[in-house]
């Protein structure tokens, strides 16, 4: 299997559903259209439609905004998870996909660059663009974007798509419509608004924010199994000698110093280690305890292999796991099927959601 790694970024919903417009009547619980009902409503609207008719709001041809269409979906009845595949269209004024003649000479020759993508396939019109994969988990009121090399991510555009679909296209008990006749005497929509049973004005909300998981809220037992190297970064001035030996003392299991570099008055010491969850937690607590003393001049992190140049710094931790797929399952190398992605998500679900659940559990503990 040729592995294809998708970067998974989680978002939590500050609000999802219909809420009173008046702040004095606003409640934490929506009156309707929570995440599950919102997703089911979108599925009900796109079901049976042609791909080109899944744009919830028309976009002016002069606009630079890229249209978002709905490609496919899959739902896991056991977990209640959803996988939506959106399609971010290329603007018409962007032209087709370009290519350069491989053995051409560097320069601006007019005959070495061509448009290779046709807007037709087997006599049918094509819509050039890139897939966007989004995993929705109503159980925790969260969702995640999944970014592969062939795909793209625009979370704000997807959130706008969902809001527009609910407000403009999906029928609900709150939806009220005022009609009028056009110049040809044909009925058309003049205004759409939302009211509850008492006549109070409502607004549909879909507000997300990235889940910033604090490093002391992750499952350190599992994380420690991946750690292969400790990295200590120290900021020094021209008149100050490095204290890396002192810094290393806070880690009692130093094995072998592998590398040391000085770049713009930064010294990094990379040390090969094997550790446990408790030892990793002790180091984190010690780091935060001494942070005030060193005025932020020392940072500590870890890597999951020496070849992996990405360091997870204690000071800037953000949990971003990966979903592993078989690259051969891509359709014509363009996109994955929603069912294939959701199948793999279900297999890897516990590990992918592990740190999200730890974060939420610790939040509740801190509140109590």
Question: In a few lines, what is going on in this structure?
Answer:
The protein has six helices and 18 strands. The chain has helices spanning 35-46, 155-168, 220-224, 244-249, 277-290, 338-367, and strands at residues 3-20, 68-75, 82-89, 98-100, 113-115, 120-121, 124-125, 129-137, 142-147, 175-181, 187-194, 202-210, 229-235, 256-263, 266-272, 298-303, 312-313, 322-326.
Structure overview:
The longest helix is centred in the C-terminal third of the chain and has 30 residues, at 338-367. Strands 1, 2, 3, 8, 9, 12 and 18 form a 7-stranded antiparallel β-sheet that branches. The chain has a 5-stranded antiparallel β-sheet with strand order 14-15-13-16-17. It is an alpha+beta fold and 368 residues long. The model is unreliable at 104-109 and 253-264 (pLDDT under 50). Helices cover 22% and strands 32% of the residues. It contains 6 helices and 18 strands. A hairpin with an 8-residue loop joins strand 16 (298-303) and strand 17 (312-313). The protein has helices spanning 35-46, 155-168, 220-224, 244-249, 277-290, 338-367, and strands at 3-20, 68-75, 82-89, 98-100, 113-115, 120-121, 124-125, 129-137, 142-147, 175-181, 187-194, 202-210, 229-235, 256-263, 266-272, 298-303, 312-313, 322-326.
Keywords:
single chain; alpha+beta; 7-stranded antiparallel sheet; 5-stranded antiparallel sheet; globular
